[in-house]
Design brief:
alpha+beta; 82 residues; 3-stranded antiparallel β-sheet; 3 strands
Length: 82
């Protein structure tokens, strides 16, 4: 029998929100959940671990996304009045 991860354990292993996991699962980009009762779903631990390993292997060495330009940050004074 393979290990099963409930929602809380899944979120402890995969640092994504449930809405992101739901969307990725719907698009076929995340392991599918299965139901052990009519209301309780789980994910197969080995499939999730394999998915994480594949993501790590495909990860670039450096962040390639868009970073906000630091020189354009706007600072606003904080209102410290209580």
């Amino acid at each position: 029998m393979k290990g099963a991860l409930g929602r809380k354990k899944l979120l402890a292993v995969v640092p994504l929100s449930m809405s992101t996991i739901d969307r990725m699962e719907k698009n076929g980009d995340f392991p599918k959940r299965w139901y052990i009762t009519d209301k309780r779903c789980v994910w197969t631990q080995e499939e999730v671990e394999k998915w994480l390993d594949e993501r790590r292997a495909a990860s670039p060495d450096e962040f390639g996304g868009k970073k906000p330009p630091v020189d354009q940050r706007q600072y606003r004074p904080m209102n410290t009045a209580a």
